[in-house]
UniProtKB/TrEMBL annotation:
<keyword id="KW-0418">Kinase</keyword>
<comment type="function">
    <text>Catalyzes the phosphorylation of the 3'-hydroxyl group of dephosphocoenzyme A to form coenzyme A.</text>
</comment>
<comment type="pathway">
    <text>Cofactor biosynthesis; coenzyme A biosynthesis; CoA from (R)-pantothenate: step 5/5.</text>
</comment>
<dbReference type="GO" id="GO:0005737">
    <property type="term" value="C:cytoplasm"/>
</dbReference>
<keyword id="KW-0808">Transferase</keyword>
<dbReference type="InterPro" id="IPR027417">
    <property type="entry name" value="P-loop_NTPase"/>
</dbReference>
<feature type="binding site">
    <location>
        <begin position="10"/>
        <end position="15"/>
    </location>
    <ligand>
        <name>ATP</name>
    </ligand>
</feature>
<dbReference type="GO" id="GO:0004140">
    <property type="term" value="F:dephospho-CoA kinase activity"/>
</dbReference>
<keyword id="KW-0963">Cytoplasm</keyword>
<dbReference type="GO" id="GO:0005524">
    <property type="term" value="F:ATP binding"/>
</dbReference>
<keyword id="KW-0067">ATP-binding</keyword>
<dbReference type="Pfam" id="PF01121">
    <property type="entry name" value="CoaE"/>
</dbReference>
<dbReference type="GO" id="GO:0015937">
    <property type="term" value="P:coenzyme A biosynthetic process"/>
</dbReference>
<comment type="similarity">
    <text>Belongs to the CoaE family.</text>
</comment>
<keyword id="KW-0547">Nucleotide-binding</keyword>
<dbReference type="InterPro" id="IPR001977">
    <property type="entry name" value="Depp_CoAkinase"/>
</dbReference>
<protein>
    <recommendedName>
        <fullName>Dephospho-CoA kinase</fullName>
        <ecNumber>2.7.1.24</ecNumber>
    </recommendedName>
</protein>
Length: 201
């Protein structure tokens, strides 16, 4: 069984993934893979440089992520272009890793995919779990974690489907408005439920 874990930016997907991984469940993180596929020399890296120019590179030729972020979170056409370059490589690597985990005998695999609904990737998973935080808390946590101004944080949040719309689409909604311990207890309860299903027998 593959669970697609999603949410909005900074709603707590990585925090939830870590808790699930501590329970021995393999987690495939789209953000990590999206970093790997844009390493110098990779096809996606070359396409990014060809489209965005050398301006989005640091002196060591790796991507200047802060700069590329400022561009794409403020320009939807350029964001779509970056997505078009990066997403296919991310998708195929995620599928490959999931197949490996399943063929190794893991009954349950988590795919942490921030843009699961935006990119219409629900066909890749059996069930969708949404890590939800109230939009005010989301904004506060994002500003605190990344040191963004309110304007920077809002531009990132607005680059995604509103979290309240995602709530309507998810199979399971996991509220993360309380403490991390509250989140952990909710996830452990959900795992118990999953373990009772046919998938895990
Ligand atoms: C623009 C980039 C270089 C900024 O890098 P940075 O290190 O600042 O952010 P990071 O990659 O850690 O992403 C943080 C969060 O931003 C959000 N986010 C990232 N990319 C996008 C996007 N294209 N559209 C909407 N939200 C996005 C996600 O919630 C993600 O969890 C980077 O996010 C990127 O390459 N994005 C395109 C690939 C992508 O869509 N990744 C998301 C999952 S596949
Ligand atoms: N229940 C909680 N209480 C307090 N802080 C929290 C809670 N859950 C998550 N956080 C904090 O909020 C921030 C965002 O969480 P996290 O990094 O897990 O989000 P994310 O959804 O993975 O973000 P991104 O979309 O950027 O990958 C982090 O600093 C994290 O430590």
């Amino acid at each position: 069984m593959i669970i697609g874990l999603t949410g909005g930016i900074a709603t707590g997907k990585s925090t939830a993934s870590l808790i699930l991984n501590e329970q021995g469940i393999p987690v495939i993180d789209a953000d990590i893979i999206a970093r790997e596929v844009v390493m110098p020399g990779k096809e996606a890296y070359e396409k990014i440089v060809a489209f965005f120019g050398d301006d989005v590179l640091l002196s060591d030729k790796t991507l200047n992520r802060a700069k590329l972020g400022e561009i794409i979170f403020n320009n939807s056409e350029k964001r779509l272009k970056l997505n078009e370059i990066v997403h296919p490589a991310v998708r195929s690597e995620m599928k490959k890793q999931a197949e490996l985990h399943l063929s190794d005998g893991n009954p349950l695999v988590i795919m942490d995919i921030p843009l699961l609904f935006e990119s219409k990737l629900t066909h890749m998973v059996d069930e969708t779990w949404l890590i939800y935080t109230h939009p005010d808390i989301q904004l506060k946590r994002l500003m605190e974690r990344d040191g963004y101004t309110e304007e920077q944080a809002v531009s990132r949040i607005k680059s995604q489907m509103p979290i309240d719309e995602k709530k309507e689409l998810a199979d399971v909604v996991i509220e993360n408005n309380g403490t991390k311990e509250d989140l952990k207890q909710k996830l452990l309860r959900l795992l118990q439920e999953v373990k009772k299903t046919d998938f895990m027998k």
